[in-house]
Design a protein that fits this description.
Elements: H1 14-27, H2 32-37, H3 43-51, H4 59-72, H5 76-88, H6 93-100, H7 108-122, H8 129-137, H9 142-165, H10 177-181
Length: 182
C-alpha cells in the first residue's frame, strides 16, 4: 500500500487548483496520478502540456503506444487508465490485450506501431533497425517515428511516477497479462 499521499485540491497551489477544476469539469474527477503531479508547482501543467501537445498520431494510435509502453514498464495505474481509454477509442478487450503485448494482429499498421513502442521501451531507445524498417514499410513516416518516441517518453514519465509513488489506482483495475494468459 502506498504511503505517498494523493493531494486534495485545498493542499495544492492556486495554479494547480485551477488545473484540478479544469480536470474535474472535463473528466468528472481528478485522476490520482494527475493529482500526484501537483506535489510540484509546475509538474502537472508541464506534463499536461506534453501529453496534450500536437502530434501526428491520432487518439487511437496514441493509445496503442500508451498500452505497449505501460505494459513493458509494468505500470498498473497506466494500464488500467489506458485500457479504459482504449475502449473509449473503439478497441475491444481482446485487441487491448494484444496491444499491451506490443502486437496488433487485427491491423498491420498498428502492429508496426505497437512493436515499435514496445521495442523502444524495452531497449531504452536503442531500437532495432528491423523494427524501424518494418514501421516505415507499413506507411508510417519519420515524423510519426519522432512523435512515437516523444509519446514513449511521455508515458514513461507517468509510469515512473506511479511506480515510485504507488498511489491508488482509480480506474477499473486490469490483470497482468501472464495471469490472463495462464
Amino acid at each position: 500500500m502506498s504511503t505517498f499521499n494523493v493531494p486534495k485540491r485545498e493542499e495544492v497551489s492556486a495554479n494547480n487548483q485551477a488545473i484540478f477544476d479544469n480536470l474535474e469539469s472535463a473528466l468528472g474527477f481528478v485522476p490520482n496520478l494527475y493529482a500526484t503531479y501537483a506535489h510540484s508547482e509546475n509538474a502537472l501543467q508541464n506534463y499536461l502540456n506534453l501529453s496534450n501537445a500536437k502530434t501526428s498520431l491520432n487518439a487511437k494510435q496514441k493509445e496503442v503506444v500508451n498500452l505497449a509502453v505501460s505494459e513493458v514498464n509494468n505500470c498498473k495505474y497506466c494500464l488500467s487508465a489506458h485500457t479504459a481509454i482504449g475502449k473509449m477509442n473503439g478497441f475491444t478487450e481482446e485487441q487491448i490485450l494484444e496491444l499491451r503485448a506490443g502486437q496488433a494482429s487485427f491491423d498491420s499498421k498498428l502492429n508496426a506501431l505497437a512493436g515499435l513502442a514496445k521495442n523502444i521501451t524495452e531497449n531504452r531507445g536503442a531500437t532495432s533497425e528491423a523494427t524501424v524498417a518494418n514501421f516505415l514499410s507499413e506507411g508510417w513516416t519519420k515524423e510519426n517515428l519522432v512523435d512515437t518516441i516523444v509519446l514513449v517518453g511521455d508515458k514513461t514519465i507517468s509510469n515512473y511516477l506511479h511506480k515510485t509513488t504507488d498511489v491508488p489506482v482509480d480506474f477499473p483495475a486490469v490483470q497482468a497479462l501472464d495471469e490472463i494468459e495462464a
